[in-house]
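Saturday, quiet lab. Running sequence design on the structure tokens for the scaffold JK sent over.
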């Protein structure tokens, strides 16, 4: 089975490529490399001792997509390509709608023309409305969102549901990620943000390495255990396995289906800081700042539907997530450079 991964050179994409290759799938990577490079895929290829087919291009380029489908027998598409920073989306909304929504429209048109109807969409827990009872299940309310990133993801979700309702050939998995962290246990691939990290754990790791002087914590007045935001952190290797489980499920399911991928456990920013200090043996200096636009106080999952229907469950705990992050950072102090 041959899988096309859009945005497959990125953090989650490269780990999913590794998981798929280890499971015997063929993969084609399509990525514009705007926030990534060829290096993680070179390392993936070395880890599995198999070649990885890489095509540089943008999902908003219909002709490039059409050529891929014409020249390759693609069985399913896993769609990672898009922008992903909540705070940045509030400053650059047009870029987020263009990349995340418009790019998905063009990709789906190319798939439809090629007769490829299996689609796994990289969505997000940010599609859920702000005031929710915890844990969040797939039946919780979506919409009324505080940031363009989440709105762009929800727009794609709605489009996918409409597409599946209009054409029974479509088999669609919508995977709502919570907060991916960690790295492959080999230490060869991990999260390598460009510039100042937008996500907490790589930010902390770079502070521990001395690349950044201190951690900025956005908000310490939330109604949480210690005033800092609480999130559900999931190991990227578990997340990658969730895509493999979703592909298997689409062999027997039709229509559009939604699954949360999370652990069901929430940790505050300060809890993550303290645990990272333990695993690294490094002090993490931090400063409190104003809340970021679009952030919410608490968000953690009910992922029992994925366990029931996909046979998937997160296996790795917080200690393993942070230890693998630290190993990656120590082995790659400047990232993929």
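Result came back. Writing it out in full:
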């Amino acid at each position: 089975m041959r899988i096309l991964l859009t945005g497959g050179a990125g953090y989650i994409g490269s780990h999913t490529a590794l998981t798929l290759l280890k499971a015997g799938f063929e993969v084609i990577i399509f990525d514009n490399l705007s926030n990534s490079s060829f290096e993680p895929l070179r390392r993936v290829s070395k880890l599995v001792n198999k070649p990885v087919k890489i095509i540089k291009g943008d999902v908003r380029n219909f002709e490039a997509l059409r050529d891929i489908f014409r020249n390759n027998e693609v069985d399913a598409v896993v769609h990672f390509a898009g922008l992903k920073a909540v705070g940045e989306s509030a400053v650059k909304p047009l870029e987020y709608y263009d990349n995340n929504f418009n790019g998905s429209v063009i990709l789906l048109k190319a798939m439809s023309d090629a007769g490829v109807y299996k689609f796994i969409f990289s969505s997000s827990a940010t599609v859920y409305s702000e005031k929710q009872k915890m844990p969040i299940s797939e039946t919780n309310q979506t919409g009324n969102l505080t940031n363009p990133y989440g709105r762009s993801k929800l727009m794609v979700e709605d489009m996918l549901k409409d597409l599946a309702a209009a054409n029974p050939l479509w088999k669609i998995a919508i995977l709502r990620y919570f907060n991916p962290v960690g790295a492959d246990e080999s230490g060869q691939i991990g999260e390598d943000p460009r510039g100042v990290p937008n996500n907490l754990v790589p930010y902390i790791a770079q502070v521990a390495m001395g690349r950044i002087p201190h951690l900025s914590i956005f908000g310490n007045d939330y109604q949480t255990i210690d005033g800092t935001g609480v999130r559900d952190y999931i190991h990227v290797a578990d997340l990658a396995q969730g895509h493999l489980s979703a592909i298997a499920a689409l062999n027997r399911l039709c229509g559009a289906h939604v699954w949360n991928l999370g652990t069901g456990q929430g940790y505050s920013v300060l809890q993550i800081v303290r645990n990272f200090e333990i695993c690294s043996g490094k002090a993490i200096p931090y400063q409190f700042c104003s809340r970021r636009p679009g952030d919410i106080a608490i968000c953690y999952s009910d992922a029992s539907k994925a366990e029931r229907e996909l046979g998937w469950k997160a296996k790795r705990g917080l200690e393993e997530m942070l230890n693998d992050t630290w190993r990656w950072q120590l082995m790659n102090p400047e990232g993929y450079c």
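Notes for JK: The mean pLDDT is 96. The first strand starts at residue 2 and ends at 6. Ask whether to fix the surface positions before the next round.
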